[in-house]
Records
---
Amino acid sequence: MVARTPYFTVMAREYLDDRVTEDKPIILTPLTLYGSVQIGGSHVSDPRRPEFVGVTAKESDAFNLRANAAAQRWFPFGSVSLNYTLENNHYFSASHFDLMKHDMDVPVAIHVGANEDIVFRPLGSFSLVGGQNYQSVVGLGVQGIVFRSTYRQSVQGLIYKDRIYPSSLEGLDGTHYRFEYNWDFFPLSWFFQVLLWIEHQNADNDVVNGVPSPIPYSHTDVGLRVNLQHEFKWLSLGLNSRLISRTDSDTSTYAVRTTGQVITKRRQDFDVVLQPNLSIPLYGTVQLVGWYEWQRIFSNMGPIDYADRNYQNHVVGVALKATVSNY
Amino acid sequence: MNTWRTSILAICLLSFFGATSLPAFAADGVVSPAAVGWGNLLVPGLGATIRGHPGRGLLESTLEIGTYYGGTFYSREGSFTIDGTVLVPSGKNVTKPLMGQVMQEFGLKLHMWNTFYNYQQASMHPGNADLELKYQQPLYNGKWDDVLLAPFKWKNLSSPWVYLPILASAGYLAYSYRTTDVVRQNHFSSPGEEALYGFVQGVSIPLGSSFGEEVLYRGFIQREMRYYTDSIPLSILTQTAIFVLNHPPDLRPASAFGGVYFGLMANHFDGDLEPGIASHFWIDFVSGVFVYLSYRKVEGKKVPFSAQLSIPF
């Protein structure tokens, strides 16, 4: 049960790393409740979302809020959970890129072996950018999880459909097929996560009434995320990294801006994120967290092409995080 | 809702019931064969992973997903079918689309085989021996080479269950080939392009169909449905329904007949899938030969018969 609850594993790590010294019995009830709130501020060099090409945004200070609420009901066959996450970023100098995002999923976990679960995970999300409807997502995930003494491995397939509301981005609508392979290792005082994924998007509007669009959006992403964290007695240090390679399924046909010559070219992007971070326990379940994030998208679609897809952003942030639970 | 999403939803529902059908407490290392099969069908690599072989799971998924989505880089995509999604245009060079089709065929059919293989291995685990006794349809315990060689074994070919449908479909295809009008197209394919077309129709599709489809639809889905419902007609109809939904619309009537017939064969031969594999392979092979000849015909090239046929692309 401890291994099958994400919040219990966090608690167990804190205890094993001597960050929690007070012994308290865990209250195991059929309903596990958990919540967290993170409130802070950051400085962002480019608040623009990368898909909004041709729009500029001034660097800005930001207010950041992230809240999470989760309930997990245990049954003899497994568990049923309800998870909700709210994310709000308000940019003081670029409010037209303010983000308000709601995520929800309802995982139904079924024990298929002593240490193996299959999870059915209906999910949905809705987000607004600059106060305007931006994106809605509805989908279903199926996940197999293996629990071992020092690690947890999961394999997940997700199919979801998204709708992008701004008319300038409607070509991005589509059905996504995503497959994730994840390993979480828990050596003493360390946490090491590797996530590999491949995601294919079949865009809705690449062919309209039998006529192929000159700028198709169907593409395949291959991604790798590696997170490393080391726990010290008074703080923990971490490094999160992510690399995504995106390749369009087909070539785009367009006129080069400088010469007017019509060419065909297949879009390829590399999206890199590096994020060193630290967290310091302050009192009880309250922590001070700080991070720096560098994101860079290298694209073969540059200033002379139909859109410049290159992007760079730096973020420095600090926040207070508090958690509550019924165990 | 399109048929691809309908079939995914159907498989999700079946996998949910399959996963809940196992005993509540299993011994260490014993996992539900149903969960392995249904889970792997939806997520490549899942079956091997929960069986305790994560390296194999990663290898399976890399090969299956890599070749399947790699195939999308060669042509625009259409709707999902059991043989892939890439569109093969008419009147143009078809080398790249055919390469994409071969890659998708490989990825899909390998996925089907691996789904069955992991299900088979989980079923054969000694910890599941008692559970296995409750299954009405015996488990097919052939290996991958048994499946590949099944179309060439005399014990399979000599059965009237196998050669009669091959002869009947060959007769129908020959009649259709001779009586259907040709629609000529302007493209004149190169020898390499034509050879690749012949390979796809005569080797890739028949081999993929017999290698992956029989073990998945008749060896896994039909067997599981028989266990859930204790009904031969329901088990055959369920696997046939999914089999039909995964085919393009113009092939659905034939695939409905094939699904029922191959299902009856699996039942008649007590779970031995090899006669069905042999029959499926040779029917698809004969069909592939006629499609290949039609491809030459629409380009105005010489063919062995004075044939008339329009082909769907």
---
Amino acid sequence: MRVETTVETVWGRDGNDYAEVGRALAQLESALGQPPDVLFFHGGERCNPRGVAELVAARWPRARVHGGSSGLGVMTRGHIEPGSTSFGLLGLVDGRGAYGVGAAQLGAAPRAEVKTALAAALAQAGRPGEVPALVLLTSRPGREEELLLGIADVVGAHVPVAGGSSGDDAVTGQWWQVANGEVGSELCVVTVLFPSGTVVSSFQSGYEVTPQSGKITRATGRNLHEIDGRPAASVYDEWTNGAIGDIAATGGKIEQRTSALHPLGRRAGASGGVVEFVLSFLDTVLPDGTLTLYTEVREGEQVWAMRGTDESLVGRAGRVALDTLLHEGVREQVRGAIVMFCAASAVHIRERMPEVVAGLDVALGDCPYIGTFTFGEQGRFLTGGNRHGNMMISVVLFVGQDSRGEGRTIR
Amino acid sequence: MSGRPETVERLREAVISLERSRRRERELRAAHEGLLDVLRVLAMADHREETFESLLGVLRSVLPFEDAAVLVRAAEGEAFTPAARTAEWLSAVHLTPGPMLARVVDGETVVMFDATLADEWRAQAPEVRARCRSVIHVPLRSGPRPVLLVCTHTEPARFEQRHVEVIKRIVPLAGQILQKLDMREVLSAREAQRHARLATLSAIVDHIQAGILVEDDQRRVFAVNQVLREMFVGHGDADGAVGGDAVALHARFAFLAEQPDAFVRRTRELAEARVPVSGDEIRLHDGRVVERDYVPVATPDAGFVAHFWQYRDVTARRSLEEQLRRQAYEDALTGLPNRARFTEELGAVLRTLRRHPSRRASVLFIDLDGFKAVNDRLGHAAGDELLVAFVDRLRRCVRDTDVVARRGGDEFTVLLVEVGAGAGEELRVAQRILDALARPFSLAGQACTITASIGVATCTPAHASADDVVRDADAAMYRAKAAGKGCYRTFLPVCSPARQDADDALGAPPDRGRALRSMALPPNAAERLVDRARKS
């Protein structure tokens, strides 16, 4: 029996245009040859997620739907649609696999709340108690570390998690999440994947570590107060040769460019001489010299100043995808991909995003993919462990498998 | 690091790429080593329990489980129960197939972070549920009697999907081990069945009351039963002859035969001809008589496969047959041939006379006169004594070649063979018999004299059967009775009064003369009736 996983994508400029959405759905169904078993739905903050979700539910009532907003529209093979009303859909058909989507409203106890979402997802997949091949996570930004702990509590820390926190245009809380027919802005959405083939994920950054480093001596959640006993803003300003000199003492919003090129990094692990860093995006400087970040930090952690360039941000998505394909030995059978790309990085290199798309096109060939721009990425490092970071790229590859070992050749 | 950031980043990515390759290589090496271990198990798989332990040893190197069991389902719809296990608590596992197990049966390896969330495990006893939070289900064999391996851990979320990848490589080999053991068990069962059949056959052969020797097509001894060993005890090493040279064994048996050379020669002929033979008789030195059957054994598939020899000791049977034969042909009191034997002997003589018309033979029919009175007076024992004594005297009156027989009661017949031309010789014999009775017998202390009436008939071509001759002699005997007893008379086919008179004169006693000269043809039926009445 031939076992085939089929993946196709479509995109549209305006989710408020029901006719356009309808045409996109029809186009996707036509490309797949049948309604999708699972639908991944991403789009700008104003793409009318509720309306799109209703159209989807009406057309494909049995499809599992997982989605979240993007900070810079969506990208698909050969195309990027950066508008805030744009939307992209990735449909997957895998009759012999099992998939389930669950969601929970995030409140005071994200670690517990995500378990509810996970249980619902496993139940919808018909696999309660079973270890999924991968957990896909989409949530509103802010509590990702706790969500990862909650997932590990249930299925174990070894199960790969890939995810991206939903973004918006101006960090104003206009993000949204979709789980099947449910749409909200404070949701955590998890999808459990039991594919008939395999699923491969990769989680990397494209930054160079610098010699500037210090120990976190005081931190609260995502607020980094002190490094080596000194105000964190001052230390960071020194490491970056005065990049935030004007606000280091008074406080203020850190420039996008500064954060994008000089994030902070912490060791995520090391293996074979390779040290992997999980990055933190810097948001603001508080008057007391505290740096507010998009990730949690803990006292006692060593922190480094990282350095990136426009070039490294532009090219790394394609390279990460290609490297993953090559080293997992799945290049011949890859059927589709989801790319979660740091929105801050994307905004920083906004004008050069077509180059990012071109790089992904080369890496993934004619394989369909959907790219979303996120406010925090989750993934599994090579050295192990699921982490939440910023300025990262998280890639999930759907790999088909059939009895004759046939697959498309990606060039 | 220093230098252009892009270059440094590329270098770093290259190092990551290299590390990724190393990692994958390590995983592959571990998987291949696991496979090699399984192959070793496969090669050495001998017993199910040992193989199970060896397989678990291999699995422990790739999977952190605590306990394991092989579960089997005897029939569609039934529960899976342990066929082998590492711990006692697993014996309580009784998994009724549900959606999860259906996928395992269908060939999927299912790994669970918490098995108690699945219907199949939720239904287990509390002590089982407490020990099997993490469970990995590995299909070992599909089909109507599926077999699966479950590895368990008391803590949740101990097994990973990467374990599945390694196990998936091992499972087909584990399945082959299982198949190999299954086949071995089937073969063992067949072998045991074959041994049981052979043992049964051997017992049956041992209980056959005949000596059995089976040789293979190379004439090696395949089977010898106890009767044969006893039959030839002390004459050949029959006990240790299985697998030995059957020809030599037969040669040793030959030493018992009266004609060893003939025995060996006949045995060789039969074995070469491969034609069934029944009832070959072999006489042994010790007086035993043995019958032998030979059957060449063939099967539809293999053709000729064995020589089957059966030896039966028929000594007792032959002795009984001889006794019966004597009873059929001898008179028990006197040891003389009886009426049937006499008839056969006379028939043979008649056939000879037909081929040789010049030869002559005669029959004397003797009836003791007054025997009933002796019986009545002295008793039956004395009567029997008289008959024996009479026979003794009678035998002295004839040649050894003549046949003396008792027909019953006091009637005797004598077949005189090769008598000379004319009637003189048989008449002389008749006269000798009459003379032999002149002397009294001593019976029960008393002297007893008795006479006899004798009829003489000479065999002629007109006699179609022995009964014809005896009938004529009988008729002549009645003529003697009629003539006053104690005399003989010859049978005359046509009796004229003158001839009758002349004849009567020949055998008439001096004191009786012509007392019964009025005999006429046909033979005297009235006289017979009188005589019978008198005897009764």
---
Amino acid sequence: MDVIDNYFTCEFTTLSRDGSPVTWPVTPRLLEDGRFLLTTSIGLPQKAFNIRRNPKVSMLFSEPIGSGVAEPGAVLIQGDATAEDRIVSDVSSDKEFAALAETLAVRQPAGAMWSSWLGKRMWWSYYMRILIYVTPRQAWFWPTRDFASAPEELELSGLRRVG
Amino acid sequence: VWAEAAKWLGRFDEAVLTGVDANGYPVSIRVNPRAYDATTGTLATTFPAALHVIEGPANVLAHSHDEKMWHLNMIQIKGRLESSDGGWVFQSTNFDAPAKLAFVQFLRNNSTAAQKYLDKRGLQRPPINWSAVKEVQRRGAAQRSG
């Protein structure tokens, strides 16, 4: 959980129309029910388009910089994603989205520039977000980030914080 | 073109190699970018057998951020994964080096894509709750200083 909760980003992969993987660094939030929430701007909608065609995705938590995790391992989540149709432009309208935005505000103080006078003009769609939910189907853990070694399979129930 | 890819990859300590497994899910591991061959555009690696990666489309992503999640850098190389002598080889098929004004290009593309997204759905730009944004930023700043 340390890795998932504290790594600033994970490498999130969707599959394009021709089946090629496309990977972006993103900041997700592990929800209480074991799903993950992440978002994308309507200016970067390719993740959502890919998911609507093919829900299979993966998330590799493997970048410990800034996390403060003393013994950094890595976690790979493979799962099925949904990308909502609605555009969320009120961060207070969804409790989990607000929590994710707050996490991002803590980790990335300079990100506040997108709400500055200049930032609003440069990237006007930054706060127009599509919510993406990932339901894990399989999870793997490397205790030492030695990716040539065999990973341990994680129980998906271990990702749930409740019930 | 692979020499250019190698040059860019060399700026990163690590990279992420992603392929697809036997069930059709993407699967990623970290690799050493210095293993990338600038002449052939190949990168030999070991994929743990438990992940059941298969031959097919793949990519290499290298990205970095600092301790405050800023100074973001990223490149991606498209390619294929092929099995070789009990191991795996990533074979590059396409690499576009970031443009000199990559950030300007990013913002321009972003703006075009966002407007297209709205236009296709017949939507106006939705109003943004700026006071909620400021409140999130205030709480974030309080957590950082607390």
---
Amino acid sequence: MRQRDWAVVLWIAFLSAATGFFVLFGLIDPLDMINVWADRFDIGVRLAYGLAFAFLYLLCLLAAALTMFMIRTGPASGHAEGKGRRPIPEVHDPSQSNPDLDDEDWK
Amino acid sequence: MSNGQDASSSLYRKDPKVYPRDVSGTFAGLRKLAVVVLLGLYYILPWVNWDGHQSVLFDLPARKFYIFGLTFWPQDFIFLTLMLIIAGLSLFFVTAVAGRLWCGYACPQTVWTEVFLWMERWVEGDRNKRMKLDASPWNANKILRKTAKQVLWIGFALWTGFTFVGFFTPIREFGHSVLTFQTGPWETFWFLFYSFATYGNAGILREQVCKYMCPYARFQSAMFDKDTLVIAYDEARGEPRGGRKKSENPADKGLGDCINCTLCVQVCPTGIDIREGLQIECIACAACIDVCDQVMDKMDYKRGLIKYTTEHNLSGEKTRVVRPRILVYAILLLALISGVVWSINHRVLLRAELLRDRNALYRELPGDLIENVYTLKLINMDSRPHKYKVEVVDNNDITLFISPEPELQPEQVGNFIVRMQAPESAGRGSTKVDVRFSTMEEPVIERTVSARFLMPFD
């Protein structure tokens, strides 16, 4: 189950990163990005593409892994119907059976 | 949908509304202080100027981030990334030492919810009055109070959204744009979006954010161990719980120290009963500690029935503050902070890009001279104006001419033409030339860049 979940995370992150990659570089020339962000390093266009994809993939992995984590640790099936929930704590007037708290501040 | 869930299975069941009772005391005072300091910084900082610019401004169009006396250029974004990592690591460190201190006192969700609660209390009164008001039929009083609360909430949310945009657009200019209805589309979007998010999260969702939406609430337990500070009810001392008169001896009635007043539940912003044990919903705001201590005082019992403690402490063992995970976090944090501070202090506030003129490899000049032409982009990243000296390093054959004389205002970018000349007899082919740029003023800021100087190849 866990291995399958991780495989889904890796695969969906890859698909998302690939889509984002094509859209991004359909609009932006990687050379422009090099000139702005990384011109102190002498990197070529291929490396710029590679780094950009790696960055996008990491972001997508983070999103997908966090989603899996939130679903795994979140409310289980039936939570909305009350399954697995603690009963709502009982609350009453503090002075009920505590006459010394029969004070306006506590009511 | 997974198997076994029928069509009526809903995503969400509305929990009963939590009406947290107002509380005073040491920890409530600390939280008020945190709210005032943190929100004070948030709302005031954009209005404070520093060195002639807004003290904190993330100027996206100009791609310059101002944080007090520091200006970060796009090339410096690594520092901002490192600062984010430091912030994350600090959170881990604090959580390992003191539990959910972040949740209880410093999380934006907590501080803004606190302010929204203050406004709610001013208008509708404390817990009981609010409950009665909500249960009562709509009448003039209810309409008036609910409207006043909404006006306050929406006004505060809009001010929050306005301030948020003010960190990215000079806030005074943005204020003028808002007043004259001339805000740009992105400014308008973020202004309204952040206002809406504040209103929704702090006004409506409140504890639901912590319970269902916050990833940190889910994984903070991974940083906990038996020596982490938690808020706990001393079950051995408190149970069996039950009502009694102050004059009665609980031992005679077979009771512990908990008088079952349920005030700890009533003050809880997430609506839990801390006496049921440590729960993921507990944001460690310590409101239950404050109110329980007051009740203990009233009953002349010892304080601390609910208290900050550790699991080891509760089981009678000794709490260790210094332990491997704390040391690892502390060392990492110290190394990162030192590294970032050192790097920021040793930044060279000058950038130079020397690009060869692509039209010609070289020019032959009268007097058997060879000339190469370059375009120089010089960036003064300092907050002072500078004149620059430009010279070729360790090469007496090459003479450098630059026009105009490089002189830049603070944070100015200048483009110049650089010509380098050498006698034809100086060599053949391509030669690496180092060019040093240095300020005329003290302390000297200098940077050396390399370029290729081309001579005839034959």
